[in-house]
Amino acid sequence: MSATTEPAPAGSAPKKTPPKLVFAAPRRGKPPRHLADLTTDERREAVAALGEKPFRADQLSRHYFARLTKDPADMTDLPAALRDRLAAELLPELLTPVRELACDGGKTLKTVWKAFDGVLFESVLMRYPDRATMCVSSQAGCGMNCPFCATGQAGLTRNLSTAEIVEQVAAGARAMAAGRVAGGPGRVSNIVFMGMGEPLANYKAVIGAVRRITDPAPAGLGISQRAVTVSTVGLVPAIEKLAAEDMSVRLALSLHAPDDELRDELVPINNRWKVEEVLDAAWHYADRSGRRVSIEYALIKDINDQAWRADLLGRRLKGHRVHVNLIPLNPTPGSKWTASRPEDEREFVRRLEAHGVPVTVRDTRGREIDGACGQLAAATKE
After folding, report:
1. What is the DSSP secondary-structure string of 93-120?
2. Separation of alpha carbons 11 and 8, rounded Å
3. pLDDT tens string 102-118
4. Is 103 a known active-site residue?
5. Domain boundaries, the chain
6. What does CATH list as the number for 96-379?
7. Which is higher by pLDDT, 256 or 20?
8. Where does [4Fe-4S] cluster bind (predicted)?
9. One of 122, 164, 167, 265 is an active-site residue; which one?
10. Residue 149 annotated as binding site
11. Which residues are paired to 253 by β-bridges?
């Protein structure tokens, strides 16, 4: 693809055949049932079905969500004969770490997880002076086929279950509590669904995970909904459905281009829902939730970083409840896609600010440990 220096005249672009997009994961065996898959009432019903008092479910939940333990030996308020049985039924081992790398002075921890069926996916724990953010995956792979994304090029293997998503956060919380991240013991404060996969293509499991992450302990991990960000490439019906949930999570829209001609190539879902329609859905979500939308924009050298595109983006966003998060592209090995020149990045920022649009440049973490989403899992060999 060659860089465009000015907008193409309306109607001049040849008709394109929309690329194949994968929304439903291939069928595989289901992950074992886990406490985090269930609501509070469902947990009590599951325990009652085992012939035990329903309150035992609350005790088990308190250990997993509040005390961050899944070891039956730690559950001393449960009868010894019951601990192993309840743990086996409701706390099965879901994820096994197969590779773990640290960087940024030990403040960034990236983990490749293997699920029960052998699929691999990633999570990243990043500690900052004022917060600790967990970036979680919602799918193993991704079916959105964005050409500059390592995960998108790998394709979709399957959706993750609610509990497989929650366990990534719980594992990060245990690492923080144990002081395994530089800076001493602490807690996970923020969650971003920006790891592998398109979260809104796995809607039911992601919403379930958000509930478990944000429900007060012992029902969940007790993290504020306002500290949770759910990203999407622009699945308009799912954005509208999310707005109807009446949650206060932040919506992050991976836009990457302000014009349909380029976005059709960079984000193939744009062949189905165009920029204007996607932004309208985002503004509806902002109005319904009261939260400003984060516009994610990966700056790619000579592709989407032209000054005129910054002006077009500024005109589209001006006056809305929005913030632009510019992302210096973390290139994948052998890819033609690379980060913008520093001077082009600065000019892009300047032009957005001239339109009155708030903008920041993301602090890049993990470059030396295959920081782009999907890179480490792709490089991991069993």
Report:
1. ---EEEEEEEEGGGTEEEEEEE-TTS-E
2. 8
3. 999 999 999 999 999 99
4. no
5. 35-90, 96-379
6. 3.20.20.70
7. 256
8. 142, 146, 149
9. 122
10. yes
11. 232, 295
